[in-house]
Design brief:
- It is a single chain.
- This protein is α+β, with helices and mostly antiparallel strands and 295 residues long.
- It has 2 domains: 70 residues, Up-down Bundle (Methane Monooxygenase Hydroxylase, Chain G, domain 1), CATH 1.20.58; 140 residues.
- The strands form 2 sheets. Strands 1-2-3-4 form a 4-stranded antiparallel β-sheet. A two-stranded antiparallel ribbon has the order 5-6.
- Helix 1 packs antiparallel against helix 2.
- The chain is 44% helix and 13% strand.
- The longest helix has 30 residues.
- Its main location: nucleus.
- It is found in: Nucleus.
- Belongs to the Mediator complex subunit 27 family.
Length: 295
């Protein structure tokens, strides 16, 4: 394969040199006799120049024929399809389409090759998801999906969370039944709009109390945008398909620690502000406050 590419590259270079020297011949013919030929026997000098150029072109043509003869011929004719019409384009912008087309063909061939390899690997491995049983004598029941649960189950979970904290106000909303979107207000500190997918938290955005309740619009305050990023990290940390209710309660306990967002100092540097921000991170186990640079 490498030898074929080297031979093709050599042949293309030979063609390039041939075209360059042929162009010099036509330029010499179009210019005719020039002042640098002198006044004496300038016709002879011009003829000698043409002979030299034509000899060079003849040698270049011989090199091209030799390079092409050393190439391995393709097994069959190439089917260029409609791409053959690209050679008829006269504008420079459209002539560049051929190179882009060749790159797309190469990309498609790689995708086809990689997908075939991936298919073979997947076919030779079985991915049956199994879970360890809690008892060796009893078989675990097949669990229903955490995304497809009755609205009453989610409602009871929200009510139980609302009773956990006295300084938390939860306002449920159901724009997409049965998946609710709740607004959780931590005293007068902040509020969070939390979207559920069944019994699992799907998305969280934290805002100031005076901002709107749009789920997909982030806060205009940097401190609440940073808290939102940390909530997404905690949401992934507490995620548990086997125990979704415990995962939601654990997340809410962690989120409740932001009630001291503007009052508790950083546990490490013992300062309230660092880079003009309060401690926006809460440790996932101890719930202690830290600055982003101190955690």
């Amino acid at each position: 394969m490498e030898r074929d590419l080297e031979g093709l590259n050599s042949a293309l270079n030979s063609v390039k040199i041939l075209r360059s020297n042929v162009r010099r011949v036509f330029e010499s013919i179009s210019n005719g006799l020039r002042a640098d030929h002198g006044e004496e026997s300038k016709e002879n000098k011009y003829i000698l120049e043409l002979q030299e150029l034509l000899t060079t072109v003849n040698n270049n043509l011989r090199d091209v024929e030799g390079s092409v003869a050393s190439l391995t011929p393709p097994p069959s004719a190439f089917n260029l399809g409609n791409s053959t019409y690209l050679s008829q384009e006269t504008t420079q912008e459209r002539q560049q389409l051929y190179g882009q087309l060749v790159n797309s063909y190469k990309w498609t061939d790689k995708i086809r090759e990689y997908s075939a390899l991936a298919g073979n690997i997947l076919a030779s491995n079985s991915f049956n998801k199994t879970y360890k049983t809690l008892s060796t004598t009893k078989r675990r029941k097949t669990q229903t999906s955490n995304h497809n649960v009755a609205p009453e189950v989610i409602e009871n979970l929200i009510i139980s969370i609302d009773r956990l904290f006295n300084d938390v106000t939860i306002t449920p909303n159901r724009p997409l039944v049965p998946n609710p979107v709740i607004q959780v207000s931590l005293g007068r500190v902040l509020k969070a709009i939390i979207a559920f997918k069944g019994l699992m938290i799907e998305y969280v955005v934290v805002k100031n109390l005076s901002e709107g309740n749009d789920l997909w619009t982030e806060s205009r305050y940097r401190v609440f945008r940073k808290v939102t990023e940390n909530c997404h990290a905690a949401m992934c940390h507490f995620h548990s398909p086997m125990m979704p209710e415990l995962a939601v309660r654990s997340f809410m306990h962690w989120f409740h620690s932001y009630i001291t967002l503007f009052s508790a100092p950083c546990k490490r540097c013992l300062k309230h502000l660092n880079c003009n921000l309060p401690p926006t991170w809460r440790d996932l186990r101890s719930l202690e406050p830290y600055h982003e640079e101190c955690k």
